[in-house]
Amino acid sequence: MAFQLATPRFLDQPETAVRSTFALDLLTQVAATLSADDFAKQMARIFGQDIPESVYRALQDRLIAGEIDNPVILIEDGDYLADYSNREKVIRIHSEVIHNALENGQGADFLDVLLHEFGHHIDNVLRNDLTPDLDDGATPIANDASGEEGSRFSIAMATIGQFDTERVRIASYRHGSTSQPLGIEVQWTDARIRILWRYSNLNETSNLLHPHPERERFEAGDGDEHHHTHETIESVLYDLEMSPYELNTLYFGNWLRDYSQLLDPKIVRAASAPKDFPDVLSRDALTRIVDVLSLKRFGDIRQAGGDLYRVTPDVLGVYRPSEHIDNPRVVDRNTPDPKSRDQDFEPLVFDGDPLLQIDYATSMKRYIGRSVDFMARELRFAMEHPRKPWGLRAFGSALHVLEDFFAHSNFVELALIKNGHSEVLPWTSPAECEARLPLVTGMFGATDVLASVAGPMGKILFSLDDLTYRPIKPGDRSPREQMLLILLEEHENPSYLAHFQAFLNARDGWVGLPFAEFVQRSAAYLTGPASVLGNALGIVMQGVLTRFGENIKDWQTRYGEDPHDNGSTDPTHSQLAKDHAEHPLHLLASQLASEAVRAVGAAMVRHWNGDTRADPVAIATAYFKHPYNSEWQDAPVADWAAKNTENVRRATSKFELRAIHEQLADTGQATLDRLAKDGAAYLNFMRGEFQDKDSPLWVLLKLTPAGSALYALYQALGIIK
Asked: In terms of pTM, does the model score above 0.70?
């Protein structure tokens, strides 16, 4: 580093452990190089606006003085890659992370874990150690930062950190008091790029179902929850001859398969049908919403590739169970034909349909064959268009299906049963097939759709990023403005859209004005009829919240019966899904998926490089077998089970698994609650800024389109009287 740091004070350190002051040194470097105002602003973006500036200044002073303790780092093979105990001020890291850093060159992943958990430590220090510095009568601060401050800290440090040398030592590992310590090092540029890439579509979640509530776990990557996701599973492709641009394009195809679920026939309006917001939205509107969501996640490749990465109806498609290995069974025979809304939907599949039957020889549901066919078509397209954006997109789409096979079926459970763990719950009843217990997947329902659509929309509508948005050129629109335009176009009352468009058109003419005059023009306009926008947003969001809430109750009433008790071979998606870190078999499912992805990826690259014998289609389709008819998984499953006896035990417990399933079945309601909470937190931030009615910031926030709209939403939701 470019300067000398004060020697930090250590808590008690065990003889066999990882020792590192890297995160503390890096934060101290930031504290020493930024002004007091800039440091406070940077920390507020990470840890929250609820912490007073005086506390952030105290943190800066104590960092520079060397008065912040470095947490102990322990090696502990728990259910998570790492976690931090607020009570003990201890970071626990799984031995797998240490092993991979020392033996497999995965120091960047260790760095991410270290920064992430140290971020939790600093949040704990701010909220518990430095709060005595607050003046008497000051507003109490929350016990924990909103969202995932560990992720935000890791991103910030990867962005800000600067070093004089490229090779950076981040930790040392000693096994026993007499052994020679081993260094853990990273190439800083490569490591920071990897961290930023993994978090480029950051989603923030709470720490539900952690066995130790005082701990905050490490989770990172894309998706609704922080865990091993499609993106982190595909990180194994880093070792192949693929550039970061190609990998990002590949993941774009995978991401599109996930987000095609938003276009569910339950909420898609037929092109000829009248507007009925918020019950239904047009396919065009939902597609454009996904396009807005993709701007943040894939901004780099979109900027480079232009229309090649624009989300269109042809690129996105609609929700088709075959593209996700979902059980297509429809229970209610009065369900409207989805093809009457859009011809791209698959036909309804009712009881008695051959697709729902179990093939005796393969012991698998027949509908799984449709998914294999889809995956194979996508892989062949990728083979025919090597390294082209559209070929990479198809490759990612195919890998999505392969990865879902392990996360959304009972393959892992059946593999453990085959391995001798007969008490593991298979989430199916016995059936007439060679293996007796069939391989099945789950039924995707309304709550799963809700979790996909409401959460991402809320992240844009309630983001703090564009509170003071000012266009650079005429026609520029913030993500929130783009989302509002789409939603208002779907509303039956055209005046909301007309007023908003009129304001945006007028604002386009003010782009070149001095900042003060720009704000004055906005103020003059928004005191007039355009203030109706605020009420429009309130109406839009209240309608969405109400309608989604009704869908949740309907789904929970109809579904969720235990297939172990009723003779069924049709569990729900939430009963089978192992996407979430809370599930005891999550890491095993992701490990098997990673092995499959690595094998298919290696074959694809060999084919691209001219090896005509390489057949990624044959390799990928070979994984779609009942565990009783395959052997590749036996050794890794046995090894994992031997090292994770507690997780195997949890997979035998109806009580524990039902608690997880109920939580996932309640994902829709949790999403609504989170959306309302995020909206309230966002608006509370604004209300705090509004308290000083004469401040320039109040004027700016109150009179920008987003500020006016969301201030009115406050009123609509009854937060402001």
From this structure: no
